[in-house]
Amino acid sequence: MKKLITLNEWVELFPSIQTIFDKVSTDLKLFTIFTSAEMFYYFADKFGERDFYKYYDTENVTSNANMVKQASDYIVLYGKSHKYEYDKLVDTLSLEYNPIENYSMTEKGTDTRTPNITQTNKGVNINTVGVDTSITTGKTTFDKSDSFINDTKTTNTGTNTDTQDINTTVTTAGNEKTVHEFTRSGNIGVTTSQQMIESERQLAMFSVVDLFVKAIADIILIGVY
């Protein structure tokens, strides 16, 4: 006999239905929040009173197993086709930010200077010194000390020149780097702090798990109108 029964009744009569999230759990980051078993318990807690979309066969266990497998495959198909959306939503749960700041900028840059300078000094350094000396020598007689005989006078005049060749080379090369970083953040006034706090409260009430199980319920459970 075939009949429509609720999800909770399926759990009692055919417990393997609790594995319908096992396959999709390897595809979505969502299952870092809940295990596949926990996801089913949460799913059943919210939608357990709705009828499963397939008939339960009281006389054919194989038919029931096929219905469970088909539901699991539908969930996998949905998970893969919406993987990007759910993975991104899960990523936003761990973002770090200041909820009352709506402006943040960091500017980084590097100034690089590569000098390649060669300075060469060439030439002649000449140092000239003038010379002007006079030397007088002589002998006196015994009776007149103020009279000289055989006096001799020597005079030297002229210049001494010291010459030095100059040939030096100085080279400057390499890399000079200057790294600068400028950071600005805060509220630029477009949105008030109170509005941003209210947005943060609304965000806190959002549940990516609720979004997922609601979508699955619309696929494998009969809607209530």
What does this structure look like?
The structure is a single chain. By secondary structure, the protein is an alpha+beta fold. It has six helices and six strands. The chain has helices at residues 7-13, 36-47, 61-81, 83-92, 193-204, 208-220; strands spanning 2-3, 56-57, 103-113, 116-140, 148-173, 176-186. It has a two-stranded antiparallel ribbon. Strand 4 and strand 5 form a beta hairpin. Helix 2 (36-47) packs across helix 6. It is rod-shaped. The mean pLDDT is 79.
Low-confidence stretches: none
Number of strands: 6
How far the N terminus sits from the C terminus, by CA atoms, comes to 27 Å
State the shape. rod-shaped
Strand content: 25-35%
Number of helices: 6
Average pLDDT works out at: 79
Backbone CA Rg: 50 Å
Series of H and E elements = EHHEHHEEEEHH
Strand order of the largest sheet: 1-2
- Fraction of helical residues: 25-40%
Structural class based on helices, strands and sheet pairing: alpha+beta
Largest sheet: 2 strands, antiparallel
